[in-house]
Structure formats: C-alpha cells, structure tokens
Amino acid sequence: MLARSRLIVALDVPDAATAMASAQRLQGSVGMFKVGLQLFVAEGPNVVRTLRQRFPEVDVFLDLKIHDIPNTMRGAIASARNLGARFVTVHAGSGVEHLKACVEEAGDDLGILAVTVLTSQDEQACKEAGHTRTAAELVEMRARCAAEAGCAGLVCSGQELERVNIAAPDLFKVVPGIRPAGSAVGDQKRVMTPAMAIERGATHLVVGRPIMKADDPAAAATQIVEEIASAL
Ligand code: C5P
Q1: pLDDT score at 75
Q2: Which of 172, 171, 165 is nearest to 147 (CA)?
Q3: Cα separation of 83 and 105, whole Å?
Q4: Where are the domains of the chain?
Q5: Whose CA is nearest to atom 20 of ligand 1?
Q6: Going by CA atoms, what residue is nearest to atom 8 of ligand 1?
Q7: 34 is catalytic
Q8: Domain 4-231: CATH architecture, name and number where available
Q9: What are the φ/ψ torsions at residue 110 (nearest 5 degrees)?
Q10: Which of 16, 99, 140, 219 has the most CB atoms less than 10 A away?
C-alpha cells in the first residue's frame, strides 16, 4: 500500500462547498476523504456521491459511527451501500450480533470499520460511562468482536495497537488522534505521532485539524505522508 493511500483526511467542515474546496486542494496528497457527522448531517448522502464523482482517485470513508439495534443498523448500511464509500464506521460496543448484521448487509464493496473506544475518551470517561475495564482492555475485547463478526477493520488509538495486532491481526487498523510533533492536541486524549502509529502497526491514519487548520493543508498532508513513508 502506498504511503499516501494510508492517509485519511477528516473533512470536518460545515458545508459541501467548503468540503469540495478542501478536497480540490488535497486530492493529490491524501488517500481518502472522511465524511463525518458535521458534513453528512448538513448535506446528506449527495456530498459522498459528489466527492466520488469529482475526485474518483480518492476513496471516501463515511464516518457515521452507527450505534442502534441490529435491524436499524442493517437498514443504515443498506442505505450507505449505494453511495460509493469504501468504509463506514459502526460502534463495536454494540456487540457481535450487531456487527454481524452490518457485515452481512454491507456486501463486498463497503468495508465495515468497528469503532472500539473513542480517542477522546480517557480512563475517567470510561469510568463515567460505567465501565470497570480500562480503555485498553475494552479496545482489545471489541477488537475480538470485530474480528469474529468479519469486519474489514477497526478504529482505535495508537496506544492500543500492540494489543489489537494480537487480538485482530488481519483487520485494518485505522487510527485517529494523530498529532505530528508540536501540533495542538485539542479534545483528543489518546494521541500519537504519525510515525509512531505506523511503526506500531496502523494501516491507516485519520488526521483532521492538523491538516485542515494548517496554513497550507496540502503541504501539511504531504509532510505527514513523508513521515508515514519513512516509518514503513
Ligand atoms: O481533528 P482531529 O485530527 O482530532 O480529527 C479526528 C477525526 O477522527 C474526527 O473527524 C473524529 O470524528 C474522528 N474520530 C476520532 N476518534 C474515533 C473515531 C473517529 O477522533 N475513535
């Protein structure tokens, strides 16, 4: 896999016009555009179709973090199937039966990525949510569920990669909470540099603000791709 194809940029912007302008600038420097809740709720499925039509070389990652009863998750995946996205996210905390329903519905072209524990959650947040296990233990358990259900991959922080490589060796490991040395952490808690995450086994990195808020987003993306390449 090319270094560039491992970089997913989060198009966390309010509208399609801003997303298309960012995509135009970034198309040669990244492997995938991530459409998350802000953009999807504002613009709906057409934004995914338009990205695919205008930038066919760049895959789309639909980050909906679906979490509901299996029948409803299945319905959401059925609707997502026709949009041309490469991946869609669902919450792994729902359990194997829920994940299996999503995998069955997705077919071959749409990969289900299971979100283990959000990278914005630290130990305190896990406790507040009623968990008695640590974030790392939860990630490992959910990675096993994702593998058992036949998911294409999982989303975890760089800090759990070693555990996850053992629990789910064949799955894609998609890692947000990426911060190049010296960049602002923001609301992320379990963060890591691009090079460290790749060295520990990440297959894809998700980067939002360090690229989107940079003075020159394409240059920031290129620098991260170079860091990925040197860590491979
Ligand atoms: O700006 P930043 O690099 O923190 O953006 C990270 C992106 O990855 C956001 O779009 C966020 O929704 C997403 N994400 C995450 N943690 C997860 C799954 C997705 O931060 N566990």
Answers
A1: 96
A2: 171
A3: 14
A4: 4-231
A5: 176
A6: 176
A7: no
A8: Alpha-Beta Barrel (3.20)
A9: -110, 120
A10: 99
CA angle 230, 193, 170 (to 5 degrees): 75
What is the rounded distance in angstroms from the CA atom of residue 220 to the CA atom of residue 232?
19
Assign 189 to helix, strand or coil: coil
Coil vs helix vs strand at 161 = helix
The reply to whether ligand 1 has any atom less than 6 angstroms from the CB of 155 is yes
Alpha carbon of 115 to those of 66, 109, 121, 139, 194: distances in Å?
9, 19, 12, 9, 19
Distance of CA 224 to the CA centre of its chain: 16
- Of the candidates 126, 129, 166, the residue with the CA atom closest to the CA atom of residue 144: 166
The SS3 call for residue 190 is coil
Residue 151, classified by CB atoms within 10 Å of its CB into exposed (0-12), middle (13-18) or buried (19+), is buried
C-beta of 60 in contact with ligand 1 (< 6 A): no
pLDDT in tens, 21-58: 999 999 999 999 999 999 999 999 999 999 999 999 99
User: Is 160 a pocket residue for ligand 1 (Cβ < 6 Å)?
Assistant: no
The pTM assigned to this predicted structure is: 0.93
Each residue of 62-71: pLDDT tens digit? 999 999 999 9
Element (H, E) at 138: helix 135-149
Question: What is the per-residue DSSP string for 33-70?
Answer: EEE-HHHHHHH-THHHHHHHHH-TTSEEEEEEEE-S-H
Residues 96-126: tens digit of each pLDDT: 999 999 999 999 999 999 999 988 888 888 8
* Residue 31, amino acid: G
Atom 5, ligand 1: residue with shortest CA distance = 208
